[in-house]
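Support request from a user on the community tier.

User writes: "When I paste my structure tokens into the form, the page sometimes reloads and wipes my input. The last time it worked, I copied everything first. Here is what I submitted, just in case something in the input itself triggers the reload:"
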């Protein structure tokens, strides 16, 4: 559920997007230091860090899977 103050920020066009596409209250906004904006932006920063960690782990898993698939292809080719 969206907080009513964040909805008001959205209506006034003072929100920005992070690189991961999360919505934050823009730094140049006069509302950027309000308790709601600070709490919201902090929560989004935490999510951004968690998303980056998940992305890194996913990229590592994909690389390992590709290496396994390559090894399997070599083994299958050797059996022919």
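"...and here is what came back when it finally went through:"
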């Amino acid at each position: 559920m969206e907080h009513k103050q964040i909805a008001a920020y959205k209506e006034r066009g003072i929100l920005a997007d992070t690189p991961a596409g999360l919505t934050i209250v823009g730094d140049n906004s006069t509302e950027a230091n309000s308790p709601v904006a600070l709490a919201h932006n902090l929560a989004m920063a935490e999510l951004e860090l968690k998303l980056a960690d998940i992305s890194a782990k996913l990229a590592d898993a994909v690389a390992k899977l590709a290496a396994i698939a390559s090894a399997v292809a070599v083994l299958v080719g050797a059996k022919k």
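Agent notes: The reload is a front-end session timeout and is unrelated to the input. The chain has a mean pLDDT of 88. The longest helix spans residues 35-79. Escalated to web team.
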